[in-house]
Amino acid sequence: MADTPLLHQWANDPELWASLVGWHFPYSAGSAENWVRNYDGRSIDSISLCIEDEELGLIGTASLKPINWKDRNAFYGIMLGDPNTRGRGLGKDAAMAIMRYAFDELDLVRLDTEIVGSNKVSLEFHVQALGWKIEGVKKDWFYRDGKRHDKVIAGITADDYRLGSSSYWKA
After folding, report:
1. Where are the domains of the chain?
2. Per the database record, which ranges form the N-acetyltransferase domain (predicted)?
3. Is the alpha carbon torsion for 22, 93, 100, 1 positive or negative?
4. Is residue 95 classed as helix, strand or coil in its secondary structure?
5. Which of 10, 24, 40, 87 could bond 81 through an S-S bridge, CB–CB 3.0 to 4.6 Å?
6. How far apart (Å, rounded) are the C-alpha atoms in residues 124 and 20?
7. How far apart are CA 51 and CA 6, in angstroms?
8. pLDDT tens digit string along 116-162?
9. How large is the average pLDDT for residues 4-23?
10. Using CA atoms, how far apart are residues 53 and 77, in angstroms rounded to an integer?
11. Of the candidates 2, 8, 125, which has an alpha carbon nearest to the alpha carbon of residue 57?
12. For residue 20, what are the CA distances in angstroms to 104, 129, 149?
């Protein structure tokens, strides 16, 4: 419960949400507290995790949802809430850990994500740092700050992850 105020702050940060996928309305501190209190982590089709650093504490969130167990794939999302934590390798560590968990523990065969086309940092991060592939673009999908933005669809397979991750885990 100690992290609830920070989660509430991030949930109501318009700059942060302008670069993320999804529709989001601001919500109250009480709503954030209820979500944390009622989240039991026992859903069979979604996993929501907090990203923590030993020195900095809570720095973001990551999720796999929904998980499609029949076809062995999931939608992946990651967010670093504090801009000062970005660019330090913490997001890559978290993303690599989530992919390792998805592919090596849950035995999923692919992950998908969607990225706001104007979020060049996220696009570069996923494609260049993590090895994801851009698989499509939906023109003018998002409306942010009075402008239309494309939805970039990206994915990674377990095979591509394993091919690109071996040197990362040896470091």
Report:
1. 45-170
2. 1-159
3. negative
4. helix
5. 10
6. 15
7. 12
8. 999 999 999 999 999 999 999 999 999 988 999 999 999 999 999 99
9. 72
10. 18
11. 2
12. 27, 19, 11
Distance CA 36, CA 50 (A): 11
At the fourth CATH level, which superfamily is domain 45-170? Gcn5-related N-acetyltransferase (GNAT) (3.40.630.30)
Residue 21 has φ and ψ, to the nearest 5°, of -80, 150
Indicate the length of the chain as a whole number. 171
Q: What is the pLDDT of residue 94?
A: 95
Cα–chain center distance at 163: 21
Q: What is the pLDDT of residues 80-116, one digit of tens each?
A: 988 888 888 999 999 999 999 999 999 999 999 999 9
Q: What is the rounded distance in angstroms from the CA atom of residue 12 to the CA atom of residue 28?
A: 9
Structure confidence at residue 64 as a pLDDT band (50, 70, 90): very high
The predicted model gives 55-59 an average pLDDT of 91
| 152 half-sphere exposure, CB direction, 13 A CA radius | 19
What pLDDT, on the 0 to 100 scale, is given for residue 142? 93
> Which residue bears the tokens 């670093």?
80
